[in-house]
């Protein structure tokens, strides 16, 4: 990549970041290309030249965030951390920028835009699930996951835990952080604190 390509990619990333911050703070409909351009310190023409339209920019932002999250999760899963710490880091989403975006906002985007829905489905099927299966396999090899529990059940469980942690129905974010160690214990052992005898 030469100097011109690097500058172009840096500009694109600034535009994506500005759009992400504005979309997640105010919603897509309330944000104009002019506001994104001002925040990114570029002209509106530059945004249209790089992305074509606000809708295309939104799709690019979502795909970029999903890929960043995948990379962050991959780093955790492939690290030398003990398996329980991998799970704790993964479910806490401590490094994920995507976790800052309101999940209801993401759901509404998927329901309103079939292209975003397809992007999310393809990402889940072709990238996210295979990565989770690698994590599960590591857990089995290290003796942390029972062989009798199916991959499908574990995937549902991990997703339920991650989604539930974001919910403010019971506790606000600061409160839930105080109890995170206990939540990790619940993740591994349930409310009994040990496996059920058969």
TrEMBL record:
Keyword terms: DNA-binding
InterPro entries: Homeodomain-like_sf, HTH-type_Tx_Regulator, HTH_TetR
Record-annotated HTH tetR-type domain positions: 9-69
Database matches in SUPFAM superfamilies: Homeodomain-like (SSF46689)
Residue ranges flagged as DNA-binding region: 32-51
Recorded GO MF terms: DNA binding
Coiled-coil stretches noted in the UniProt entry, renumbered to this chain: none
Highest taxon of source: Bacteria
UniProt cross-references to PANTHER family, sorted A to Z: ACREF/ENVCD OPERON REPRESSOR-RELATED, TRANSCRIPTIONAL REGULATOR, TETR FAMILY
Name of this chain's protein: HTH tetR-type domain-containing protein
The species this protein was found in: Geosporobacter ferrireducens
